[in-house]
Amino acid sequence: MPKIDKLAITGASGLIGSALFGHFKSRGYSVVKLVRRKPKTNEEVEWNPQTGFIDIAGLAGVDAIVHLAGAGVGDKRWSAAYRSEILNSRLLGTTTIAKAVTELKPKVFISASAIGYYGETGSRAVTETDRPGDDFLATVCREWENAANTVGDVRTVKLRTGLVLDPTAGALGRMLPLFKFGLGGRLGNGKQYWSWITLHDQIRAIEFLLKEKISGPVNLTAPNPVTNQEFTAALARALHRPALFPAPKFALKLVIGGFSTEILGSKRVLPKVLQDNGFEFSYPHITTALSELVK
Q1: Which of 123, 199, 236, 269 has its CB surrounded by the most CB atoms within 10 Å?
Q2: CATH 3.40.50.720 fits 6-230+253-293, yes or no
């Protein structure tokens, strides 16, 4: 098992990155975060994915690099310009980091991807060996992973992350206020599968992957994906509120735009690699996960 003492993180201001930074700091690791400005502390290293600049000297001695940076897919409407930003932020950032990995040769390189890789799967369960989809986000994920594959013989893990659940941010953070007032309900017809994971298990899984000799794509999703209707019903029960107000498909498309295809689309994704290698989820079921998160 490789020993990891020092690691670097991109995207350390995001939901996953900030939690990961705090997690490793609390456990005595030496952690630096890459920032797109002049560093203010010795825990920061400058980089600029737009220009390809990265302070290699500031990363000297790192055992692992965890690359999480990229424009949020749900942050804005998907105009042509923002679609380009979603793709380019991933390609430019990953290309820049990959060059640093090739030069530094850390023990492991972990690069973000997403379950968008699989496209629409309906009720069909997919694992890491399944083929990619052909929609916009599937194309983004495929190109994203290809950029991470350019680091030569450094062990590389590609995180195909699902819907990360945390009450302070992300999809759950946005849904909670409505459900607390009894105004929540299923989205569309509610039959679409949501492949989810708690932030707690996301961080545990990344630490597991740093230490285990695993490479290639890894699905970061709980082993029990649920339909949107099951998800919203479980959230309502956890809050002791009704879920009487479904959001119709046309309204979501009108308000959200292109990202509505992800909310209304179905991805039933299973974490085969994690389970085959002995990872145990703290929250494998949605009922216990949501009860813990909203209490």
Answers
A1: 269
A2: yes
